[in-house]
Amino acid sequence: MAGSLYFWEMLLPALGLCLPLNRREKSLWKAVACMITGVVLLMVIMKLAQTKYEGTLISMGENIMFSMMMLGWFLVIWSLVIGCIYFFVQCSLREAMYIFALSYGVEHIFYCIRLLTEWLTGGHIGNTAPLIYLPCMAGSFLLAYFWFAKGAAYQGTYLLEGISASTSSIVLIAVVWGLSIVAGELNYAHIHSIYAIPCCIFMLSSQREQLRREIERTEFTKKEQLWEKTKLRYEMSKESMAVVNQHYHDMKHQLMALSTMSDEDKRKAKLLDMESRIAAYEAVVKTGNEILDTVLTEKKLTCQINHIAFSCIADGAQLSFMDELDIYTLFGNALDNAIEANRKIENAKNRWISVQIQRKKGIILIELINPYQGTVDFDESRMPVTSKADRESHGFGTKSIRSIIEKYDGQMIIKTEGQKYLIRMIFQGKG
Questions:
Q1: In this structure, are residues 106 and 140 in contact, taking their beta carbons and an 8 Å threshold?
Q2: pLDDT tens digits for 70-90?
Q3: Where are the domains of the chain?
Q4: Residues 6+ apart with CB under 8 A from 340
Q5: 428, 389, 391, 395: which is closest to 411 by C-alpha?
Q6: What CATH number should be reported for the domain whose range is 284-431?
Q7: CA–CA separation, 23 and 392 (whole Å)
Q8: Strand locations in 274-410, DSSP E?
């Protein structure tokens, strides 16, 4: 009975730590198979111990064989829990051992709380009494999931590459376990509990903070890469637009000169040729915001190439409160998504994008609408789930949009209706 209780004491915090992580295919069946195998081995060891030492009170030092059997008992349970972790979530054996070390730290906190309760009540409330045992079991799971895992996991995994203290944490847990065994044999378990609780809390806290810093570092690296790419695209777009504007004005003057040509046929042929060339430059958008003009013109030219109708009613002056690169990144990502959705529509007559930027009743409203083909799935936070294989890379564009909106205390609403995809951004009027 004690063996099965200890197994569940270890498994519950491990489950809490694994909940936010990516699961393996058929993970439940694999974990159950591992559990059954381990339970059988555990029962064999316990049966051998009961047969050989039943009714005999001995200490670890009095019987080497008994001590080895007890060590084997612990190793079977630990291996069982590590195996369940390994087969349940997508992780390496090293990562499974790291998660186990964390779960042991959580379990040991509540084990020590039970021992202290027993000691403080003079044994009236035993450490396995339901009054204290059940709340501690529940507490170990809740602490592991809500306090640790929920804020330390990143996209279904723990970022262990930059965690320098993972090995030392496992060593620390081993030391704590060894001291708890020795203290128990010497009847000083309550003294051990007093220093073991803060020791485990310190270890768990340091690991949680390191994991969170690793998440921040990863996010910063991705944003920095996106920033550099956006900056490069913006500079290229500015240069391209300068050339477009120069050609546009040159061609206007050429048209005026051609209008005085005496050869009617040549004049008409030249005019038709130049008018067709000018049509491409009519993509230039003027909104009153140079940065917005750049990105909208760039995307409008892309729309022309892909036979996508592009309509824009925009008061760019309303975006003066935003940083230049934020404007470029925000509209660049949103319009790239809209263009990609239109490309999937076979009939070019059904391709279109609508952009509106206006101020209404003290708020700045931005709306981008486009048609789409197929279905759009959303995650728990109402963010669209990309259909591309490289989910992490492509999903970051939408996250970047949301990040910029939140930077300016705005709101974002994404919804679909009648095969139309709408992204609405709302900002409080600035000034």
A1: yes
A2: 677 777 788 888 888 888 888
A3: 2-220, 284-431
A4: none
A5: 428
A6: 3.30.565.10
A7: 17
A8: 309-314, 352-360, 363-371
